[in-house]
Description:
Its cofactor is FMN. It comes from Limnobaculum zhutongyuii. The protein is α/β, with parallel strands linked by helices. The protein has a single domain, classed as Flavodoxin domain (Rossmann fold), CATH 3.40.50. It contains five helices and five strands. The protein has helices at 17-28, 56-67, 84-93, 120-132, 160-180, and strands at residues 3-9, 33-37, 70-75, 107-112, 143-145. Helix 4 (120-132) links the parallel strand 4 and strand 5. It is globular, with a radius of gyration of 16 Å. The relative contact order is 0.18. It binds ligand FNR.
Amino acid sequence: QVKHVAVLVGSLRKESINRKIALALTKLAPSSIKLDIVEIGDLPLYSEDIDVTPPAAYTTFRNQIKAADAVLFVTPEYNRSVPAALKNALDVGSRPYGQSAWSGKPGAVVSASPGAIGGFGANHHLRQSLVFLNIPCMQQPEAYISNAGAIFEENGELTERTKTFLQSFVDAYADWVLFQTRPQK
Ligand code: FNR
């Protein structure tokens, strides 16, 4: 049956390019997977002190990740690394110790920047955490969307070139998710 993918967007701003890319991916995704954005902007900064009695936002978020079959990250680069909001979400989902919501969920990373290097630094810093969180991450195709201020036409549609690339990316990711979640003997 259809696999559910939790999409985490690393930018909190309304007009975020990364959010627009995430929304475009939800539309391009093949019917074998369903993508839904899980919001991370209301998660209090992680502290073990407040987690003694977890805030509702933590519990809701953890349940959303646990309910998903897979996770997809679409993020900008902040100061050559992962935006704090996204790192915070990774941290919240990883606790309480031994009850991580992430473990085993197949993942992939898209990074986008108006600059020339396509958020490479964020993309790879994020992958470092994904190794530890036991999120098997699709290796290819990689997705570094550079010059991302120019990937949408005036009517809001993706340029043909980017659309073609994102289609191939999300098709490969669907295959990755199905393979990683196949029934075990
Ligand atoms: C940025 N930006 C940025 N861009 C980049 O390519 N490398 C970087 O290290 C940074 N650092 C950075 C730090 C902070 C705090 C901000 C706010 C921005 C620019 C960034 O790529 C640009 O604002 C994007 O448009 C952000 O993505 P969204 O919000 O459009 O998805």
